[in-house]
Structures are given as C-alpha cells and as structure tokens.
Amino acid sequence: MQVEGKKVLVTGASQGIGAEAAFRFAAHGAHVHLVARSAELLDLQVKRISEFGGSATAHQADLADAGQIRALAEEVPAPDVLVNNAGVGRWLFLDDTEPEELVTMTAVPYLAALLLTREYLGAMRQRGSGWIVNVNSPVSRLPIPGCVGYQSARWALRGLTASLRSDLRGTGVGVSEVIPGKVSSEYFSNNPGAEERIPGIARLMIPTVTPAQCAKAIVDAVEKERAEHLFPWQLKAFEISGRLFPGLTSYLAWKTGTHR
C-alpha cells in the first residue's frame, strides 16, 4: 500500500516510536491523526510535522478508557492505516505488582488495540482496503523473568495479531506486526528499573535501535505489506534460536536475567 494521500492514525504518538512514525508517514504524504494522553506533547508533534510541510491532527485520548476509544472512533472516521503503538507498564514480578497496575498494563496495549481495531474493522472490510500495524515487544517472543504483567499483555497483542491475520485473509485488509529490539526512547526513563531487567545475554547480543529506525520499519511494513518484521537482525536470530532450541534459550534468558 502506498501511503501518499492516505489517512493514518497512530496511537502513543506524543513521543518515541509513535511520534517518529507519525512524522515519517506525514513525510511520505499521508495525513496523520496523532493520538495520546498529553495534549501539550501532541501539539508539539503536530507543529513539528506542519513546519516540515506535512499534514497532521492531534486527538487527546486515554486509550485505557473504552469510552474514550469509542469517542475517538466517532471523531475520526476509519483511517486507511491504523498503527496500534500505545503501550505502558513497568517490569515487575507478579506479586510485586498492584492489581490496578496489572489492569492498566493490560488495557494498554492489548485492550486498546483490540477495541480500537474493532471500531474501525467493519468500515475497512466494507471498503475492501486498509492496513493495521501492531507494534509489539521482544518479550512477546522471548519470555524473560521479572515482568509477568507486561509480558502477558504483549503475548495477548501477539495473539490478537495472529487472529486478525487469519480473519482478514482475502478481505483486502492487511495486518503487520513490528517488533523492534531495545529502543532508545523515553520508555525506560518513564519506567525505572525495566532496563536493568533485560537479560545480560540480550544486552550483549542485540544492539539498541532508535525511534526513527522503528518508524522506518513501520512505514516499510505498510508499503511493502509485510506480515511481520523483527529487527535488528540479531533479535531475529535470537528469536529463531528460541524456536529451534527453546530449552537452551529459555535457560540463558533466565540465567542472565532478574532474580530475587
């Protein structure tokens, strides 16, 4: 799908991967709808896109709230491309995580992607075109110790992606899953302690990528209609080793990971 002239909705677009993805879609000629909780940060991103000559609109919404998801869908008609990027959650052992926080990290990314996609799916099916991108985490492929709630939500997002892909085959609506390695975004500063829980073997083997690299991968996934993209290549290699040698890979992740 060529994105020039298309409408693209990006969640979690106030900073990091979402902000860069919105900018890149706009640079490719799309009109971008940016969604996040912070109106102030959204306005900064819209200004950045406008100064570059792009077209963008900000929409303040908390996607942990089903009512606000419904209101957003009423405000913004079904886009040509939906990028489910919003995600929150600290990396904690299950019994160290308050129930309210578990609910929140399940609501975003999983329920937010589930409910927002549901709002737009009927219109996409009816017109026979559209593309959905779910931005996921490596822990949806390679379980590590010390982040049960966050990890479970990411596995749920993986299941949503696979289920949608099966349902939408032959409809003209496509689905991509983009899984970057560790990203040099605000996530780790916003979630203290998470970075230290990355297993040593992953820190050693997988280089950090930038939000701009993630944005390129997201736009490429749409334009090239890619079903799945794990990057950098070291992450893909590690994921393959997990499928070929699950016991060894799991042991190394545990051995070099977080312990009480």
Automatic annotation (TrEMBL):
<keyword id="KW-0560">Oxidoreductase</keyword>
<dbReference type="InterPro" id="IPR002347">
    <property type="entry name" value="SDR_fam"/>
</dbReference>
<dbReference type="Pfam" id="PF00106">
    <property type="entry name" value="adh_short"/>
</dbReference>
<comment type="similarity">
    <text>Belongs to the short-chain dehydrogenases/reductases (SDR) family.</text>
</comment>
<protein>
    <submittedName>
        <fullName>Oxidoreductase YqjQ</fullName>
    </submittedName>
</protein>
<dbReference type="InterPro" id="IPR036291">
    <property type="entry name" value="NAD(P)-bd_dom_sf"/>
</dbReference>
